[in-house]
Design brief:
The complex is a heterodimer of chains A (184) and B (452).
Chain A (H helix, E strand, L loop, with lengths): L2 H9 L3 H22 L3 H18 L9 H19 L1 H4 L23 H10 L2 H12 L4 H8 L3 H31 L1
Helix pairs in contact in A: 1-2, 2-3, 2-4, 3-4, 7-9, 8-9
Chain B lengths: L1 H14 L8 H40 L2 H8 L11 H8 L22 E2 L10 E7 L5 E7 L6 E3 L3 H7 L6 E3 L11 H5 L15 E2 L23 E14 L16 H6 L15 E16 L4 E18 L12 E20 L7 E15 L3 E3 L4 E3 L8 E12 L8 E13 L10 E12 L4
Antiparallel strand pairs in B: 1-6, 2-3, 4-5, 7-8, 7-16, 8-9, 9-10, 10-11, 11-14, 12-13, 14-15, 15-16
The chains are: A mainly alpha (184), B alpha+beta (452).
Chain lengths: 184, 452
């Protein structure tokens, strides 16, 4: 697909091009939004808000990077703003140290598919979930995460470690069940 | 590294993770991006409309005759009424005629130029026009409202009054026209079945060409976004005034004294006071529209200039007892001033690194008063009249504004904020507006034009 032409057409406010752009990127971006939120409704709200920003900011896309990555950054930023803004997420975005979860450095083998892993990530407390997504999936550094969330990089690190430990524990449990099921 | 293995596995799994959204998000997205386009079109249409209005305003102000302006402003919707008996008696009885000062200082006699003669063709109306030859060869025209009924009175020329020391018997004229505009001076000129006491069977209808004048302008400042010139459309709306101080409502010194209560308490009704005082000049709605070009001087400073049209208005409550010999139906006359201005504005971007920077603007402007229908006032006779020669056509002033950008930095800036203007040049060198200045306070909106 010729994204540069698509972008030009979108800038000319051509409805077909806008719809085409949305249709192409919406599933992938919905996956991003899904990982940051706790419900499909919230994910769709973020998706909608994010795409409105995308279309309004499209004139600032210079074409020097991948369009998908550019849209993804907007989605992540929109998701973070959404979490900070909404009451049900805001309390957990304060990143207090309690309750603490044990830290582990285990590296379990992932015998899960993407959907299952995404569901596990969504089971994490919101603060853990956010930092895990930003670090493990998006690839931001703890310094960058600290700047994005207004916390120290040390807090980001500790939160990530505990998120990772919790996730590892759940993965172990799933692996054990899978092995038990396979053994039978 | 084992730790990296986990993150890599997660990253690889999540990289292509997709979830098919429902149709609902797109249904919400589509109207938002479409409405935005409609809003943008709306802004363009608004600019176009303002441009047309500006052109129309300038054109009409240049071509508006004083005749029409005065007739409109001095006439309330006319109704056929009867003369109030008491007033009529007073007016027609020489014994109760007001004592007119024997001498009227020549300097206070207003002069109206560009008068052309027209034959009288219409029936009488409810205003009084007084055409007076003066010793210097020019003529003056007076318009005066009548009593609480819409009956008008034609009085003698001031010269005659001066010479004889008596008032000429006024003539009551029934109002027969349906609306105020019909009460033009043409209508007043025809004696019809009434008796005009003056020997001017055909009174002149004055067509006073709109004289040019200048007045305060508005700021034209913009945000500095990119290097080079940027172009901006600007509109502002607010309140304008002419006064001795900023936004003052008072008429010029010497033209506001006495009061209704004083006059009445003297026991003779409205004729007891030889010196009349003008009504307050009240603030009126004002607006401006223009185009500006802006250039950056540094990261914080920018300069802009352009051209704009300014409409400024004030209001006078006419026909009060204190401002007319015979108090009549009170009405509000709108003094309208039309300016074309060239402002030069410096802009300082304060709080440069903040998300919501403040733009401080200040500058000077020069302007030209291209037209006005504003009335002068003669405190000896209590008459309002038009004389555009008195106004200073060229105006110089200062202005200041503050603004914030309503849009984020990825969009073309839309600035909004308060604006103040003050004209350093007096409205007029003498008379009613002597030592008064134009001023304007309002809200200004500026939109950068073109592509980001």
């Amino acid at each position: 697909m010729d994204f540069s032409q698509l972008v030009k057409d979108c800038l000319k406010q051509k409805p077909i091009a806008q719809r085409q752009l949305y249709a192409h990127f919406a599933p992938l971006m919905m996956g991003v939004c899904y990982r940051y939120t706790k419900s499909v409704t919230d994910a769709e709200d973020v998706l909608q808000e994010g795409f409105v920003k995308v279309f309004r900011s499209l004139h600032s896309y210079k074409g020097d990077g991948e369009l998908g990555a550019w849209i993804r950054r907007i989605m992540v930023t929109t998701a973070l703003n959404y979490l900070k803004r909404h009451k049900k997420y805001r309390a957990e975005m304060l990143f207090t140290e309690a309750p603490l979860h044990p830290v582990t450095d285990e590296n379990p083998a992932l015998q899960l598919d993407a959907k299952q892993l995404a569901e596990l990530i969504r089971q994490l407390p919101t603060g853990y979930q956010t930092i895990f997504n930003l670090y493990a999936v998006e690839g931001f550094t703890h310094v960058e995460i600290g700047q994005m969330l207004g916390i120290s990089d040390g807090t980001s690190k500790s939160q990530y470690s505990r998120a990772r430990a919790l996730l590892t524990e759940w993965i172990h449990q799933i692996n054990r069940k899978v092995e038990q099921y396979a053994g039978k | 590294m084992p730790e990296n293995n986990f993150e890599k596995q997660v990253n690889a799994l999540m990289e292509g993770f997709t979830v098919q959204p429902s149709e609902q998000p797109w249904q919400k997205i589509e109207p938002q991006i479409t409405n935005r386009e409609k809003r943008r079109r709306g802004i363009l249409y608004l600019c176009l409309l303002l441009t047309l209005l500006t052109g129309w305003g300038i054109y009409s102000s240049i071509n508006t005759t004083t005749e029409n302006a005065l007739a409109e402003s001095h006439t309330t919707p006319a109704k056929k009424t009867t003369v109030e008996p008491v007033n009529t008696q007073k007016l027609t009885n020489p014994a109760v005629q007001p004592k007119i000062p024997a001498v009227v200082p020549a300097a206070q006699i207003p002069i109206t130029k560009n008068i052309i003669q027209q034959p009288a063709t219409a029936p009488a109306a409810n205003s009084t026009v007084q055409q007076q030859p003066y010793k210097n060869g020019s003529t003056a025209k007076r318009i005066q409202r009548s009593s609480t009924t819409t009956t008008s009175v034609v009085t003698a020329s001031i010269d005659e009054l001066i010479e004889t020391g008596q008032a000429v018997q006024p003539v009551a004229i029934d109002d027969t026209e349906a609306n105020g505009f019909a009460l033009s001076e043409k209508a007043l000129l025809h004696p019809a079945d009434t008796t005009l006491a003056t020997d001017t069977a055909c009174l002149e209808s004055a067509v006073v060409k709109a004289k040019t004048d200048t007045a305060g302008s508005i700021t034209s400042t913009t945000i500095r976004q990119t290097k080079g010139w940027t172009f901006w459309a600007q509109v502002a709306g607010g309140v304008g005034a002419t006064g001795t101080g900023y936004q003052s409502q008072l008429p010029a010194s010497g033209y506001y004294f006495g009061s209704l209560s004083n006059e009445v308490s003297q026991g003779g009704g409205p004729f007891n006071s030889a010196i009349r005082s003008a009504s307050l000049i009240r603030r009126g709605a004002s607006f401006s529209a223009g185009i500006h070009a802006q250039n950056t001087l540094s990261s914080r400073w920018a300069i802009s200039t352009g051209m704009q049209y300014r409409y400024l208005s004030t209001a006078i409550a006419v026909n009060k007892r204190n401002d007319s010999i015979v108090a009549g139906n009170t009405g509000t006359y709108n003094n309208a001033y039309h300016f074309v201005m060239v402002p030069v504005t410096l802009q300082l971007t304060a709080g440069f690194n903040h998300k919501l920077p403040l733009y401080l603007q200040a500058g000077v402007h020069v302007g030209l008063l291209v037209g006005t229908n504003a009335l002068q006032f003669d405190n000896r006779t209590g008459n309002y009249y038009a004389d555009n020669d008195i106004f200073n056509t060229m105006q110089a002033g200062i202005h200041a504004a503050a603004a914030i950008n309503l849009r984020n930095k990825k969009h073309l800036p839309l600035l909004i904020g308060p604006v103040l203007e003050y004209s350093l040049t007096p409205v007029a060198a003498k008379g009613f507006y002597g030592n008064t200045h134009y001023s304007f306070i309002g809200l200004q909106v500026k939109q950068q034009l073109g592509k980001k």
